[in-house]
Specification:
single chain; 224 residues; six-stranded mixed beta sheet; five-stranded mixed beta sheet; 5 helices
Length: 224
Amino acid sequence: MPTVTVAPHRPAGQTQCVGFFERNRKEVIEMGYDGDRLPPGQYLTDRFPVLHVGDVPTYAPTGQPGAWSLEIFGLVDRPYSLTFEELTSLPNVTLTTDIHCVTKWSKFDTVWRGVRVTDILDAAGVQPSATHLMGHAEFGYTANMPLPDAVRDECLVTWEFDGKPLEPIHGGPVRLLVPHLYFWKSPKWLRGLELIDRDKPGFWERNGYHMYGDPFLEQRVWGD
């Protein structure tokens, strides 16, 4: 697949920047893609840019202090935790999907392997009062979303990208994948899934990002 040039950095609103996005969308169509797959204000890249808050964490082997684990808690009947080995032994799926970052890059046909969020939550017994999910990650990072968005078939707790273990810089050993929302809603280094009875802002939402984050509506910040 031909490489699509990464967007140059220019102040918002300049005609050169608008021209770049228009040219990129034309290239996407010329490459045989449906232009409607690319949300407005996005450009297609074959790179996988690295963006995150804090350092890249390291973990001890399972069974030792400092090992990775995932906690399922909040408004559930049976709170529980999973080790990495327990997670990866669950029935899992391989998914091909597009992803869209709020920093304006999109990547098509990414391939992930993981367990559906809905299967993990079903094992805990979600209580009727639960309306939203808060994903918890390292360094206090959180991301909120309505519960119906978290339990869509394409939403995974994932440990594999493009047929290989998920690299630490991309969230390995485990990240959340919610591909229909901007990618900040798919926290790296996932450590917890909390069921709550109202919408609460997560890390980036408290810093001005949109509470929902639909790429096709360009819901990047409060007020969009």
